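This part of the workshop introduces the protein records we will be handling. To make this concrete, we reproduce a full record directly below:
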Amino acid sequence: MKKLDFLRNAKVRVLVIDDTQKNLEVVGQLLTDNDYNVTVANNGERGIAIARKLVPDIILLDVMMPELNGYEVCKRLKQDSVTESIPVIFLTAKTDQEDLVEGFSAGAVDYITKPFVKDELLARVGTHSELSIKRAQEHMLSNIVDKYVLEIIIDIEGTIKFASAAFLELTGYVEEDLVNKSFKELKHPDSFRSELSDILDSVHNNFIYYKEIKIKAKNDKLCVLKLFVEPVSCISGLITGAQCFMVDVTSKKELEHLSITDKLTDLNNRQKLDEVLNYEINQTTRYGSRFSVILLDIDDFKRVNDTKGHLVGDEVLVQLAKILKLSVRDSDTVGRWGGEEFLVILPKADEDEAAIVAGKLKSSIANEDFKIGEQITASIGVASTSKEMSLISLLGYADKALYKAKRHGKNRVVKATELKGE
Protein backbone atom coordinates (compact mmCIF):
# COMPACT_ATOMS: atom_id res chain seq x y z
CA MET A 1 0.00 0.00 0.00
CA LYS A 2 1.28 3.45 -0.86
CA LYS A 3 1.93 5.84 1.99
CA LEU A 4 -0.83 8.25 0.94
CA ASP A 5 -3.34 5.41 0.60
CA PHE A 6 -2.39 4.26 4.09
CA LEU A 7 -3.09 7.74 5.42
CA ARG A 8 -6.47 7.87 3.71
CA ASN A 9 -7.55 4.45 4.95
CA ALA A 10 -6.24 4.67 8.52
CA LYS A 11 -8.74 5.44 11.29
CA VAL A 12 -8.90 9.09 12.29
CA ARG A 13 -7.45 9.57 15.76
CA VAL A 14 -9.58 11.74 18.06
CA LEU A 15 -8.58 12.95 21.52
CA VAL A 16 -11.50 13.93 23.79
CA ILE A 17 -10.64 16.11 26.79
CA ASP A 18 -13.47 16.53 29.32
CA ASP A 19 -13.60 16.42 33.14
CA THR A 20 -17.04 14.76 33.12
CA GLN A 21 -16.84 10.98 32.90
CA LYS A 22 -20.30 10.66 31.42
CA ASN A 23 -19.40 13.00 28.56
CA LEU A 24 -16.24 11.02 27.87
CA GLU A 25 -18.22 7.80 27.71
CA VAL A 26 -21.00 9.17 25.46
CA VAL A 27 -18.73 11.03 23.02
CA GLY A 28 -16.16 8.26 23.03
CA GLN A 29 -18.72 5.56 22.26
CA LEU A 30 -20.37 7.61 19.50
CA LEU A 31 -17.08 8.20 17.74
CA THR A 32 -15.91 4.61 18.23
CA ASP A 33 -19.15 3.30 16.74
CA ASN A 34 -18.47 5.49 13.71
CA ASP A 35 -15.00 4.02 13.15
CA TYR A 36 -12.88 6.68 14.85
CA ASN A 37 -9.89 5.78 17.01
CA VAL A 38 -10.67 7.51 20.31
CA THR A 39 -8.46 8.44 23.27
CA VAL A 40 -9.82 10.31 26.30
CA ALA A 41 -8.37 12.54 29.03
CA ASN A 42 -10.26 13.74 32.13
CA ASN A 43 -8.35 17.00 32.73
CA GLY A 44 -6.42 19.65 30.83
CA GLU A 45 -2.89 18.73 31.91
CA ARG A 46 -3.38 15.09 31.06
CA GLY A 47 -4.94 16.07 27.75
CA ILE A 48 -1.90 18.19 26.82
CA ALA A 49 0.47 15.35 27.72
CA ILE A 50 -1.49 12.82 25.64
CA ALA A 51 -1.74 15.25 22.72
CA ARG A 52 2.04 15.70 22.66
CA LYS A 53 2.61 11.93 22.75
CA LEU A 54 -0.21 10.81 20.45
CA VAL A 55 -0.43 13.81 18.08
CA PRO A 56 -4.06 13.04 17.17
CA ASP A 57 -5.79 14.17 13.99
CA ILE A 58 -8.37 16.22 15.91
CA ILE A 59 -9.10 17.25 19.52
CA LEU A 60 -12.55 17.70 21.14
CA LEU A 61 -12.03 19.97 24.14
CA ASP A 62 -14.44 20.86 26.94
CA VAL A 63 -14.33 24.56 27.85
CA MET A 64 -15.45 24.43 31.48
CA MET A 65 -12.91 22.33 33.41
CA PRO A 66 -11.44 22.95 36.89
CA GLU A 67 -7.84 24.09 37.40
CA LEU A 68 -7.04 24.43 33.67
CA ASN A 69 -9.98 25.46 31.49
CA GLY A 70 -10.36 24.70 27.81
CA TYR A 71 -9.18 28.13 26.63
CA GLU A 72 -5.86 27.76 28.47
CA VAL A 73 -5.43 24.18 27.23
CA CYS A 74 -6.00 25.31 23.65
CA LYS A 75 -3.52 28.19 23.96
CA ARG A 76 -0.85 25.85 25.28
CA LEU A 77 -1.49 23.36 22.49
CA LYS A 78 -1.12 26.12 19.89
CA GLN A 79 2.12 27.35 21.48
CA ASP A 80 3.73 23.91 21.17
CA SER A 81 5.35 23.07 17.81
CA VAL A 82 4.33 19.41 18.25
CA THR A 83 0.61 20.12 18.63
CA GLU A 84 0.08 23.56 17.08
CA SER A 85 -1.36 22.23 13.82
CA ILE A 86 -3.93 19.87 15.42
CA PRO A 87 -7.48 21.24 14.90
CA VAL A 88 -9.33 21.85 18.17
CA ILE A 89 -13.15 21.82 18.45
CA PHE A 90 -14.63 23.18 21.67
CA LEU A 91 -17.43 21.35 23.48
CA THR A 92 -19.26 24.13 25.26
CA ALA A 93 -22.56 25.23 26.76
CA LYS A 94 -21.36 28.83 26.55
CA THR A 95 -22.51 30.32 23.26
CA ASP A 96 -22.35 34.03 24.03
CA GLN A 97 -20.48 35.99 21.39
CA GLU A 98 -17.70 36.91 23.82
CA ASP A 99 -17.18 33.26 24.75
CA LEU A 100 -17.04 32.21 21.13
CA VAL A 101 -14.57 34.98 20.28
CA GLU A 102 -12.38 33.92 23.19
CA GLY A 103 -12.47 30.32 21.93
CA PHE A 104 -11.48 31.22 18.38
CA SER A 105 -8.81 33.59 19.69
CA ALA A 106 -7.34 30.70 21.66
CA GLY A 107 -6.93 28.77 18.40
CA ALA A 108 -10.08 26.66 18.03
CA VAL A 109 -11.39 25.90 14.55
CA ASP A 110 -15.00 25.22 15.54
CA TYR A 111 -17.34 24.60 18.47
CA ILE A 112 -20.15 22.16 19.33
CA THR A 113 -22.82 23.23 21.80
CA LYS A 114 -23.88 21.10 24.76
CA PRO A 115 -26.07 19.17 24.89
CA PHE A 116 -24.83 18.12 21.46
CA VAL A 117 -26.76 16.57 18.60
CA LYS A 118 -25.10 13.34 17.48
CA ASP A 119 -25.34 14.04 13.75
CA GLU A 120 -23.95 17.54 14.23
CA LEU A 121 -20.99 16.26 16.24
CA LEU A 122 -20.20 13.59 13.66
CA ALA A 123 -20.54 16.07 10.80
CA ARG A 124 -18.20 18.63 12.38
CA VAL A 125 -15.63 16.03 13.42
CA GLY A 126 -15.80 14.47 9.94
CA THR A 127 -15.28 17.81 8.16
CA HIS A 128 -12.34 18.91 10.28
CA SER A 129 -10.70 15.48 10.37
CA GLU A 130 -10.74 15.37 6.55
CA LEU A 131 -9.14 18.80 6.49
CA SER A 132 -6.61 17.66 9.06
CA ILE A 133 -5.64 14.59 7.04
CA LYS A 134 -5.42 16.68 3.87
CA ARG A 135 -3.08 19.10 5.62
CA ALA A 136 -1.03 16.16 6.93
CA GLN A 137 -0.76 14.74 3.43
CA GLU A 138 0.24 18.10 2.02
CA HIS A 139 2.78 18.51 4.80
CA MET A 140 4.18 15.05 4.13
CA LEU A 141 4.39 15.72 0.39
CA SER A 142 6.04 19.05 1.08
CA ASN A 143 8.63 17.34 3.27
CA ILE A 144 9.25 14.69 0.59
CA VAL A 145 9.69 17.37 -2.08
CA ASP A 146 11.99 19.35 0.18
CA LYS A 147 14.10 16.31 1.00
CA TYR A 148 14.36 14.68 -2.42
CA VAL A 149 13.63 17.31 -5.10
CA LEU A 150 16.22 19.85 -6.22
CA GLU A 151 14.25 23.08 -6.16
CA ILE A 152 14.87 26.80 -6.04
CA ILE A 153 12.27 29.57 -6.07
CA ILE A 154 13.30 33.01 -7.33
CA ASP A 155 11.44 36.29 -7.46
CA ILE A 156 10.91 38.40 -10.56
CA GLU A 157 14.37 39.96 -10.15
CA GLY A 158 16.13 36.61 -9.90
CA THR A 159 16.67 36.72 -6.15
CA ILE A 160 16.58 33.29 -4.49
CA LYS A 161 13.72 33.06 -2.00
CA PHE A 162 13.78 29.33 -1.28
CA ALA A 163 16.20 26.43 -1.72
CA SER A 164 15.11 22.87 -0.93
CA ALA A 165 17.00 20.70 1.55
CA ALA A 166 17.92 18.41 -1.34
CA PHE A 167 19.50 21.29 -3.27
CA LEU A 168 21.40 22.45 -0.19
CA GLU A 169 22.68 18.92 0.46
CA LEU A 170 23.83 18.49 -3.15
CA THR A 171 25.64 21.82 -3.33
CA GLY A 172 26.97 22.00 0.23
CA TYR A 173 25.39 25.40 0.87
CA VAL A 174 23.26 26.44 3.84
CA GLU A 175 20.18 28.66 3.51
CA GLU A 176 22.09 31.79 4.53
CA ASP A 177 24.47 31.28 1.59
CA LEU A 178 21.67 31.46 -0.99
CA VAL A 179 18.43 33.00 0.28
CA ASN A 180 18.11 36.67 -0.73
CA LYS A 181 21.14 36.29 -3.03
CA SER A 182 20.99 36.51 -6.82
CA PHE A 183 20.74 33.33 -8.88
CA LYS A 184 23.75 34.71 -10.77
CA GLU A 185 25.98 33.81 -7.83
CA LEU A 186 25.55 30.13 -8.74
CA LYS A 187 27.25 30.64 -12.12
CA HIS A 188 30.23 28.32 -12.53
CA PRO A 189 33.51 29.88 -13.76
CA ASP A 190 33.44 27.51 -16.76
CA SER A 191 30.10 28.96 -17.90
CA PHE A 192 30.25 31.75 -20.48
CA ARG A 193 27.40 33.64 -18.80
CA SER A 194 24.67 33.21 -16.23
CA GLU A 195 21.38 31.76 -17.47
CA LEU A 196 19.40 34.17 -15.27
CA SER A 197 18.60 36.70 -18.00
CA ASP A 198 17.25 33.92 -20.26
CA ILE A 199 15.24 32.49 -17.37
CA LEU A 200 13.71 35.88 -16.55
CA ASP A 201 12.92 36.57 -20.22
CA SER A 202 10.99 33.29 -20.36
CA VAL A 203 9.25 33.98 -17.05
CA HIS A 204 8.21 37.51 -18.07
CA ASN A 205 6.64 36.03 -21.21
CA ASN A 206 4.97 33.23 -19.21
CA PHE A 207 7.02 30.55 -20.98
CA ILE A 208 8.58 27.38 -19.57
CA TYR A 209 12.38 27.32 -19.71
CA TYR A 210 14.49 24.16 -20.06
CA LYS A 211 18.26 23.88 -20.30
CA GLU A 212 21.26 21.97 -19.05
CA ILE A 213 23.39 24.27 -16.92
CA LYS A 214 26.57 24.28 -14.87
CA ILE A 215 26.45 25.75 -11.38
CA LYS A 216 29.05 26.45 -8.75
CA ALA A 217 28.54 24.41 -5.59
CA LYS A 218 30.34 25.02 -2.31
CA ASN A 219 34.13 25.25 -2.67
CA ASP A 220 33.72 25.84 -6.43
CA LYS A 221 32.67 22.24 -7.06
CA LEU A 222 30.98 21.74 -10.44
CA CYS A 223 27.39 20.55 -10.62
CA VAL A 224 25.76 19.86 -13.98
CA LEU A 225 21.97 20.13 -13.78
CA LYS A 226 19.05 19.77 -16.11
CA LEU A 227 17.01 22.85 -15.27
CA PHE A 228 13.23 23.11 -15.71
CA VAL A 229 11.69 26.50 -14.89
CA GLU A 230 8.04 27.52 -14.82
CA PRO A 231 6.57 30.93 -13.94
CA VAL A 232 4.89 31.53 -10.57
CA SER A 233 1.95 33.93 -10.50
CA CYS A 234 -0.38 35.39 -7.88
CA ILE A 235 -4.18 35.09 -7.91
CA SER A 236 -4.51 38.09 -10.23
CA GLY A 237 -2.28 36.39 -12.78
CA LEU A 238 0.68 38.73 -12.25
CA ILE A 239 4.00 36.88 -12.64
CA THR A 240 5.86 37.08 -9.34
CA GLY A 241 8.82 34.76 -9.93
CA ALA A 242 9.76 31.28 -11.00
CA GLN A 243 9.96 27.77 -9.64
CA CYS A 244 13.14 26.01 -10.73
CA PHE A 245 13.34 22.21 -10.64
CA MET A 246 16.61 20.44 -11.38
CA VAL A 247 17.99 16.97 -12.02
CA ASP A 248 21.60 16.26 -11.14
CA VAL A 249 23.41 14.83 -14.17
CA THR A 250 26.94 15.56 -12.96
CA SER A 251 28.00 11.91 -12.76
CA LYS A 252 26.53 11.20 -16.18
CA LYS A 253 28.38 14.17 -17.65
CA GLU A 254 31.60 13.08 -15.98
CA LEU A 255 31.25 9.66 -17.60
CA GLU A 256 30.44 11.24 -20.95
CA HIS A 257 33.46 13.50 -20.57
CA LEU A 258 35.69 10.53 -19.86
CA SER A 259 34.36 8.69 -22.90
CA ILE A 260 35.19 11.55 -25.30
CA THR A 261 38.36 12.90 -23.67
CA ASP A 262 41.99 12.01 -24.24
CA LYS A 263 43.29 10.89 -20.85
CA LEU A 264 46.73 12.48 -21.17
CA THR A 265 45.96 15.90 -22.68
CA ASP A 266 42.34 16.38 -21.54
CA LEU A 267 41.49 17.34 -25.12
CA ASN A 268 38.75 15.71 -27.17
CA ASN A 269 39.68 12.21 -28.28
CA ARG A 270 39.38 10.62 -31.72
CA GLN A 271 35.81 9.47 -31.02
CA LYS A 272 34.62 13.01 -30.30
CA LEU A 273 36.52 14.45 -33.25
CA ASP A 274 34.91 11.90 -35.58
CA GLU A 275 31.49 12.83 -34.20
CA VAL A 276 32.03 16.55 -34.85
CA LEU A 277 33.53 15.93 -38.29
CA ASN A 278 30.53 13.86 -39.34
CA TYR A 279 28.14 16.54 -38.07
CA GLU A 280 29.97 19.30 -39.95
CA ILE A 281 30.20 17.34 -43.21
CA ASN A 282 26.45 16.65 -43.02
CA GLN A 283 25.83 20.39 -42.57
CA THR A 284 27.99 21.04 -45.62
CA THR A 285 26.16 18.42 -47.69
CA ARG A 286 22.68 19.64 -46.72
CA TYR A 287 23.15 23.41 -46.54
CA GLY A 288 26.37 24.14 -48.41
CA SER A 289 28.05 25.61 -45.34
CA ARG A 290 31.83 25.42 -45.15
CA PHE A 291 34.20 24.37 -42.43
CA SER A 292 37.94 23.88 -42.20
CA VAL A 293 40.37 21.63 -40.39
CA ILE A 294 43.86 22.22 -39.05
CA LEU A 295 46.05 19.12 -38.78
CA LEU A 296 49.11 19.71 -36.61
CA ASP A 297 52.11 17.45 -35.97
CA ILE A 298 55.00 18.12 -33.55
CA ASP A 299 58.29 18.23 -35.39
CA ASP A 300 60.93 15.61 -34.46
CA PHE A 301 58.88 14.36 -31.53
CA LYS A 302 60.45 10.91 -31.75
CA ARG A 303 63.82 12.47 -30.97
CA VAL A 304 62.34 14.14 -27.86
CA ASN A 305 61.03 10.78 -26.62
CA ASP A 306 64.30 9.01 -27.43
CA THR A 307 66.61 11.58 -25.85
CA LYS A 308 64.50 13.02 -23.05
CA GLY A 309 62.28 10.05 -22.23
CA HIS A 310 58.58 9.39 -22.68
CA LEU A 311 57.60 11.18 -19.47
CA VAL A 312 59.14 14.39 -20.79
CA GLY A 313 57.44 13.74 -24.11
CA ASP A 314 54.12 13.43 -22.32
CA GLU A 315 54.71 16.77 -20.58
CA VAL A 316 55.33 18.38 -23.97
CA LEU A 317 52.01 17.01 -25.24
CA VAL A 318 50.17 18.28 -22.16
CA GLN A 319 51.71 21.75 -22.47
CA LEU A 320 50.96 21.93 -26.18
CA ALA A 321 47.34 20.91 -25.50
CA LYS A 322 46.99 23.93 -23.18
CA ILE A 323 48.29 26.21 -25.95
CA LEU A 324 45.71 24.80 -28.36
CA LYS A 325 42.86 25.28 -25.89
CA LEU A 326 43.78 28.93 -25.34
CA SER A 327 44.34 29.70 -29.04
CA VAL A 328 41.08 28.57 -30.67
CA ARG A 329 37.59 30.05 -30.71
CA ASP A 330 34.82 28.86 -28.38
CA SER A 331 33.02 27.44 -31.42
CA ASP A 332 36.06 25.41 -32.55
CA THR A 333 36.71 21.80 -31.53
CA VAL A 334 40.25 20.77 -30.72
CA GLY A 335 41.45 17.26 -29.97
CA ARG A 336 44.24 14.71 -30.11
CA TRP A 337 44.13 12.97 -33.47
CA GLY A 338 46.69 10.37 -32.50
CA GLY A 339 50.24 10.24 -31.08
CA GLU A 340 51.72 13.73 -31.54
CA GLU A 341 49.07 14.80 -34.07
CA PHE A 342 46.28 17.23 -33.17
CA LEU A 343 43.20 18.33 -35.09
CA VAL A 344 41.24 21.58 -34.90
CA ILE A 345 37.77 21.78 -36.51
CA LEU A 346 36.66 25.31 -37.38
CA PRO A 347 32.94 25.67 -38.30
CA LYS A 348 32.05 28.31 -40.90
CA ALA A 349 35.71 29.16 -41.49
CA ASP A 350 37.24 29.12 -44.99
CA GLU A 351 40.79 28.01 -45.74
CA ASP A 352 42.33 31.48 -45.45
CA GLU A 353 40.66 32.11 -42.07
CA ALA A 354 41.79 28.71 -40.81
CA ALA A 355 45.33 29.44 -42.05
CA ILE A 356 45.43 32.60 -39.93
CA VAL A 357 44.51 30.55 -36.83
CA ALA A 358 47.10 27.95 -37.82
CA GLY A 359 49.78 30.63 -38.14
CA LYS A 360 49.03 31.85 -34.62
CA LEU A 361 49.24 28.30 -33.32
CA LYS A 362 52.58 27.75 -35.05
CA SER A 363 54.04 30.93 -33.54
CA SER A 364 52.67 30.23 -30.05
CA ILE A 365 54.20 26.76 -30.05
CA ALA A 366 57.58 27.93 -31.36
CA ASN A 367 57.72 30.74 -28.79
CA GLU A 368 56.71 28.55 -25.84
CA ASP A 369 59.34 27.50 -23.33
CA PHE A 370 58.70 23.80 -22.86
CA LYS A 371 61.57 23.65 -20.35
CA ILE A 372 63.33 20.75 -22.04
CA GLY A 373 66.40 22.59 -23.26
CA GLU A 374 65.33 22.89 -26.89
CA GLN A 375 62.67 24.51 -29.04
CA ILE A 376 59.50 22.66 -29.93
CA THR A 377 57.90 23.42 -33.29
CA ALA A 378 54.99 22.05 -35.29
CA SER A 379 54.14 21.55 -38.95
CA ILE A 380 50.56 22.28 -39.92
CA GLY A 381 48.26 21.41 -42.81
CA VAL A 382 45.03 23.33 -43.48
CA ALA A 383 42.09 22.24 -45.64
CA SER A 384 38.57 23.51 -46.20
CA THR A 385 35.59 21.56 -47.43
CA SER A 386 33.07 22.27 -50.14
CA LYS A 387 29.63 20.81 -50.83
CA GLU A 388 31.04 18.18 -53.19
CA MET A 389 33.96 17.11 -51.00
CA SER A 390 33.83 13.98 -48.84
CA LEU A 391 35.21 13.79 -45.31
CA ILE A 392 37.91 11.34 -46.44
CA SER A 393 39.03 13.78 -49.15
CA LEU A 394 39.08 16.71 -46.71
CA LEU A 395 41.28 14.87 -44.22
CA GLY A 396 43.43 13.56 -47.04
CA TYR A 397 44.13 17.11 -48.28
CA ALA A 398 44.96 18.26 -44.73
CA ASP A 399 47.34 15.32 -44.32
CA LYS A 400 49.09 16.02 -47.64
CA ALA A 401 49.43 19.70 -46.74
CA LEU A 402 50.94 18.73 -43.38
CA TYR A 403 53.57 16.50 -44.95
CA LYS A 404 54.40 19.16 -47.51
CA ALA A 405 55.12 21.44 -44.57
CA LYS A 406 57.38 18.72 -43.15
CA ARG A 407 59.24 18.31 -46.46
CA HIS A 408 59.78 22.03 -46.86
CA GLY A 409 61.60 22.64 -43.59
CA LYS A 410 58.98 22.06 -40.86
CA ASN A 411 57.65 24.75 -38.48
CA ARG A 412 55.37 26.05 -41.17
CA VAL A 413 51.74 26.15 -42.36
CA VAL A 414 50.67 24.79 -45.75
CA LYS A 415 47.16 25.16 -47.19
CA ALA A 416 45.57 22.42 -49.30
CA THR A 417 45.20 24.87 -52.20
CA GLU A 418 49.02 25.12 -52.26
CA LEU A 419 49.39 21.41 -53.16
CA LYS A 420 48.87 22.06 -56.90
CA GLY A 421 48.20 18.53 -58.03
CA GLU A 422 50.47 16.78 -55.55
In short: DSSP finds 15 helices and 15 strands in the chain. The two ends are 77 Å apart (CA to CA). Residues 15 and 39 are 5 Å apart (CA to CA).
